[in-house]
Amino acid sequence: MDDINLHYRFLNWRRRIREIREVGAVRYRERFKRMLRDGDVLSYQGNSDEVGCYVAPRPLSKGNCYFEVTIVDTGVRGMIAVGLVPQYYKLDHQPGWLPHSVAYHADDGKLYNGNTVGQQFGPKCNRGDRIGCGIYLESLILFHTPALYPAVGMHSLGEEVQLDLQAEWGMEEDGLMMVDSHEDEWGRLHDVRVTGTLLEYVGKGKSIVDVGLAQSRLPLNTRCHYYELEITDAGEKCYIALGLARRNYPKNRHPGWSRGSIAYHADDGKLFQGSGVGDAFGPRCFEGDVMGCGIMFPRDYILDSGDDSDDGDLEVWPKQRRVQNELYMNDEDEEEDGEEKEGSKVMVFFTRNGKVVGRREVAVPAGGFYPTIGMMSTGEKIRVDLHPLSG
Question: pTM here?
Answer without folding.
Answer: 0.52
